[in-house]
Design brief:
Layout lengths: L6 H14 L8 H14 L12 H30 L14 H18 L7 E5 L6 H10 L4 E6 L2 H11 L5 H4 E5 L14 E4 L7 H14 L5 E6 L19 E9 L6 E7 L8 H4 L5 E2 L19 E4 L7
Length: 321
């Protein structure tokens, strides 16, 4: 099927043209309307494989992901500034229009993490690409991982200064959330301290950059540590980069989850391989990631919310015998 013959693709391309012609991507009536239309266009489950689209649409998708990333960053700065004007910013998080989505995504990620981190609650967690409104870290630290410390990494000093202002007045989170202004590619030995590393969807907005970051984690994360990444599936791949299992060299892919509701991102969890002299990363690179099947070698359905229709699962869960 040609690119022009797919109605969904044509609709996305039309929206891309309109978004490209905006004078600014800062929150406004027109910006909000167009991105809302884009999200609703891409949200329904569809069998579309964006990697098989023609070169013209592939280029549009790449540009659209960057536009979405820029708009998302400006939206977060806008609301982080508003929240920072309150005496207790964390009491007003619900003014952010996608707050409920982050509550659902964080619950999803916590439940997925709990399936593969059963022995101990992680003590130190890194979130890479936390931004000016680090809602995932805040929700996980407040609601789910209430004794863990969170080290948030962002390359933008403005983003971190705004994020710090949100949690500084909270007596608990101000002691458990730390913010580092640096390029994660410059962080080496410190990565070994974390039992879990989260990678934000918009860190590495094209395949090459994303793989470069993942390879860096494979080199420096502690053996056995968990990596949680956000990906996209179907038409949602017009909004966010896709992480394939084959991108995770040096990691054992544990599970991949594709939500079908308003939570846009898919969630991938992988474990850093134990490193030995006879099974080095260089040797693994020829094999690619290993996905451990269940004892019956079947895909298992797993619903992190414990109710139907919320998740379309692709869960290849590690079975410990």
């Amino acid at each position: 099927m040609g690119c022009q013959e797919e109605p969904l693709v044509q609709q996305v391309c039309n929206l891309f043209e309109q978004i490209s012609n905006l004078e600014s991507l800062k929150p406004s009536k027109d910006v909000n309307m167009l991105f809302t239309q884009l999200v609703f266009t891409c949200m329904p489950p569809t069998p579309i494989d964006v990697t098989k689209l023609c070169k013209r649409v592939q280029e549009i998708r790449s540009k659209l992901i960057r536009l979405c990333g820029e708009a998302e960053g400006l939206l977060e700065i806008h609301y982080s500034t508003i929240l920072g004007s309150y005496q207790k910013p964390l009491d007003h998080l619900d003014i952010f229009p996608y707050h409920s989505n982050y509550l659902k995504l964080s619950l999803l990620e916590f439940n997925i993490l709990s399936q593969h981190c059963t022995k101990n609650v992680p003590n130190k967690i890194a979130f890479v690409g936390s931004g000016p409104l680090p809602l995932t870290s805040i929700v996980l630290a407040s609601n789910h991982l209430t004794s863990s410390t969170f080290h948030n990494y962002d390359i933008d000093p403005l983003a971190n200064s705004k994020a710090v202002s949100l949690v500084s007045s909270d007596p608990d989170l101000s002691k458990r959330m730390f913010f580092h202004t640096t390029d994660i590619m410059n962080v080496t030995t410190a990565l070994k301290d974390f039992e879990v590393v989260f990678l934000a969807a918009l860190v590495g907005m094209d395949k090459e950059d994303k793989v470069r970051v993942i390879d860096h984690f494979a080199k420096y994360m502690a053996p056995g540590a968990l990596l949680m990444l956000r990906s996209a599936h179907g038409a949602r791949a017009f909004l966010y980069p896709v992480v394939d299992s084959s991108d995770l060299v040096g990691f054992e892919v544990l599970s991949v989850f594709h939500p079908t509701d308003e939570v846009i991102n898919s969630v991938v969890i992988a474990r850093k391989y134990p490193m030995t002299t006879t099974h080095s990363l260089e040797q693994q690179q020829g094999l690619g990631p290993i996905v451990l099947p269940s004892k019956c070698s079947e895909i298992q359905a797993f619903d992190p919310f414990n109710h139907g229709n919320m998740i379309e699962d692709l869960a290849l869960e590690e079975q410990l015998s």
